[in-house]
Specification:
The chain has 4 helices and 8 strands. With 191 residues, it is an alpha/beta fold.
């Protein structure tokens, strides 16, 4: 596709070998996936290795992947990339969006300890949730970048909701992501 996002579509549409095909549909533990997507596609944002898109592609579902690790043309913090994502959402053909927000700075495993664990970068209260006041150097840069990504996730979730596009935000249950006001507003409004 234009704009540099990687796009993958299924080759044979045969699906994984352990999933039997029946009558043009694949049965996945109670769910039906219809092979004919009629031009619809799925967005995987923060795609990393792209395993989800690879699995969907095997089912014949076209996917657009975005991950800043793949270069500036996929960096969701660039306004033109966010604009392309919003245009894809508004196309009326987006079947769903997976937002696998990086959890590195949000993890509660980062609490520092006498055994040499990684030090905490965020606190639990409303102010320090956005980053501890004594951060410097690379830690400060990482927290600020993650804060921008949190706001991006909230904007995309709101856009999906307004366009009736299903979306999924992935993060561990214990992640601090779920404490952010914009995420909590989404929960209250969208669920």
């Amino acid at each position: 596709p234009k704009g540099g996002a990687r796009s993958r579509t299924g080759g044979t549409g045969a699906g994984p070998p352990d999933v039997p095909a029946t009558g043009g549909r694949l049965r996945l533990k109670g769910f039906r996936v219809i092979r004919s997507t009629r031009g619809r596609f799925f967005l995987e944002i923060f795609s990393g290795s792209g395993n989800l898109s690879r699995a969907l592609s095997r089912l014949g579902i076209a996917c657009h992947l975005y991950d800043n690790q793949n270069g500036p043309e996929e960096d969701v913090l660039r306004p033109e990339v966010e604009g392309k994502i919003c245009a894809l959402l508004a196309s009326g053909k987006c079947a769903g969006v997976w937002l696998a927000m990086p959890c590195g700075t949000l993890s509660r495993a980062r609490r520092g300890n006498d055994r040499g664990g990684p030090r905490a970068l965020r606190g639990e209260d409303a102010r320090s949730l956005w980053g501890l006041p004594n951060l410097q150097g690379l830690d400060l840069i990482r927290v600020r970048a993650a804060n921008k990504l949190i706001k991006f996730v909230c904007r995309i979730a709101e856009k999906c909701y307004s366009l009736k596009v299903p979306y999924y935000i992935e993060n561990p249950l214990t992640s601090r992501l779920w404490k952010y006001p914009c995420i909590q507003r989404i929960w209250k409004r969208h669920l």
